[in-house]
Write a structure and sequence with these properties.
six-stranded parallel β-sheet; about 575 residues; 24 helices; globular; single chain
Length: about 575
């Protein structure tokens, strides 16, 4: 069974993880060798290891333990036998500490990679390079230094074209800066997950030239269609002697969009404009004369409504256009992206090193092409149970590497768990994908293999703090979702795609409500909210800093310790 624990701050996540680990630890001799618990920081790893060792010591020494009742309920052998087993387990772990597998996710993947050095083309004594920027700068230096060497004529031509386009468009010309900016994409999972065929296409400049032609054909076609829409609508109005300002809204009439489109400006229609399709009343006002209303009705029925509907449909299917426009912005830089990649690969090979960003990608390629038992055979370690902490910070490729291993464990009826909190997904720079925990994790396994639990009690905060958080995370997501939906409804995104996002924020924050356990109910706590506006003399941050000493003094006078105050 895979248990998914949704745990907000203060919900006793570490306590739960430790309890679940101890339950597995007492299940059979040597179980610690077959349990893997991973988290994201060394601090969290050390905290969990210390907690487990401390509780084993408490049990072995006959001292009170928060987990004694849990363990005796799972293993009814009696307290004395349980404490004796705890002493044996503690001794075994301390004498075999390297097999006590509580580590960071990066360290686990690095250890696994060591077993596949031959498959990935590295020598056994390779080094891990953490400073990716240094390697990238070295690769770009090599790229630019070798431009006068034979065989680089095509690359030189691309760089010249790139420079010319930057100057013609009036942009800042900084070749090295632009190359470095785009080349950082090489280290991102979105690039690494791309197929090898795409990489080969980027490396082939003739393929890119053909691709450029297709891009600009698409862009030109869309812009021509938009301009034609505007001109046709204006022609319909002119036939009846009318202008866009004669319609509802006057000088701010949505019909003025047709003028913008006719003049070559591709401006998206507003929600008001889109609501005019098949809606004559949207073009009229009560103050208009009857003759004017009848004239607008004739224009509307004899061609204008058709152009409005065409425009709504046209702007609802422009994803490819905007994608092409964005690609075209970086087109020439894209042409040299593979050259930078090749320079990085050459540098890695010369120095027998692997970038930290390469780990997930290389391991993904190894695991994706082999059966799970083979992975265990190569690493020399068979894992029965997986425990993943802070799952909201897991990237898609990291999960793809774990997924077949967990699937193997589930196929043998083993217990696994993940713990996370969607609203604490803060490490986006690590390519984390909060949507995995929010909705997708449960879709990867059978329904009878997955169980979801929410840790409701907050053991860290006083009653008023918890009640304030409950109110905030009930109201704020609803307000944000409504604001987001307003933007969504006025966008060009198809309706079926819009429906996928109209409740997404509410769902993500749907498990935030916490309860105050009995030991915390008598501790009231204090919450104060003060809204500040920046003035010409001071911005709001300066005002807050000026008032901070007074706030702290007042709270201390009320009996609160400095360590218990958060601003």
């Amino acid at each position: 069974m895979l248990t998914i624990y949704r745990a907000s701050a203060g919900a006793g996540k570490t306590h739960k993880l430790t309890g679940e680990y101890l339950k597995l630890l007492f299940s059979q001799p040597g179980a610690y060798r077959r349990i893997l618990a991973v988290t994201f920081t060394n601090k969290a790893t050390d905290e969990m290891k210390s907690r487990i060792i401390h509780e084993l010591y408490q049990l072995a020494a006959g001292k009170p333990s928060d987990y004694l009742q849990l363990l005796t309920s799972c293993y009814p052998t009696g307290e004395a036998a349980l404490r004796k087993q705890a002493k044996q387990l503690l001794t075994s772990i301390l004498n075999d500490y390297s097999a006590f597998s509580v580590s960071t996710i990066d360290r686990f993947f690095q250890q696994t990679m060591r077993a596949f050095t031959r498959e990935i083309g590295l020598q056994g004594a390779y080094n891990i390079e953490m400073d990716q920027e240094r390697v990238l700068n070295e690769a770009i230096d090599r790229l630019l230094t070798d431009l006068d060497q034979p065989g680089h004529e095509q690359l030189l031509e691309w760089l010249l074209r790139f420079s010319e386009e930057k100057i013609e468009s009036g942009g800042e010309w900084n070749l090295r800066k632009d190359i470095r900016s785009l080349s950082r994409e090489l280290f991102k999972e979105s690039y690494q997950l791309a197929s090898e065929q795409v990489s080969r296409d980027i490396a082939d400049k003739s393929v890119l030239l053909t691709y450029k032609k297709q891009l600009y054909e698409l862009i030109t076609n869309v812009e021509n269609q938009t301009q034609s829409l505007g001109k046709k609508a204006l022609c319909v109005m002119e036939e009846y002697g009318m202008k866009p300002t004669d319609f509802k809204g006057g000088s701010r009439s949505p019909m003025l969009l047709f003028e913008k489109w006719a003049n070559g400006e591709l401006k998206e229609p507003s929600a008001t404009f889109m609501a005019m399709a098949d809606n004559l009343n949207g073009c009229l006002t009560k103050s208009m004369k009857k003759s004017q209303q009848e004239l607008i009705g004739c224009v509307f029925e004899n061609g204008l409504n058709r152009q409005i509907k065409k425009a709504v449909n046209h702007f609802s299917h422009l994803e490819n256009y905007y994608t092409a426009k964005e690609i075209a912005r970086y087109y020439y830089t894209l042409g040299i992206l593979m050259d930078v990649s090749q320079q990085i690969a050459a540098y890695r090979e010369e120095h027998n090193l692997m970038l930290i960003a390469d780990t997930n990608e290389l391991l993904h390629k190894v695991i994706a092409g082999n059966e799970t038992p083979f992975i265990y055979e190569k690493t020399g370690t068979y894992i029965d149970h997986f425990m993943i902490d802070e799952f909201q910070d897991t990237s898609r490729m990291q999960w793809n590497n774990f997924r077949p291993l967990i699937a193997e464990s589930l196929s043998n009826q083993r217990d696994n768990l993940v713990v996370g909190d969607v609203k604490q997904s803060i490490y986006r720079f690590r390519n984390s994908d909060w949507k995995l925990l929010d909705e997708q994790l449960q879709q990867h396994f059978r329904s009878d293999e997955v169980r979801v639990e929410t840790l409701r009690d907050n053991w860290r905060s006083c009653r008023h703090i918890v009640e304030f958080n409950n109110a905030l995370f009930t109201a704020a997501p609803a307000i944000l979702q409504n604001s987001y939906n307003e933007v969504l409804e006025s966008s060009s995104l198809p309706l079926d795609r819009q429906d996928q996002f109209k409740t997404k924020l509410m769902r993500a924050y749907g498990h935030c409500y916490q309860q105050v356990p009995r030991p915390m109910q008598d501790k009231e706590g204090h919450v104060r909210i003060q809204f500040m506006e920046s003035t010409e003399e001071q911005d709001w941050k300066e005002q807050a800093l000026d008032q901070l000493p007074g706030w702290l003094q007042t709270l201390q006078q009320q009996g609160y310790a400095i360590r218990d105050i958060a601003i």
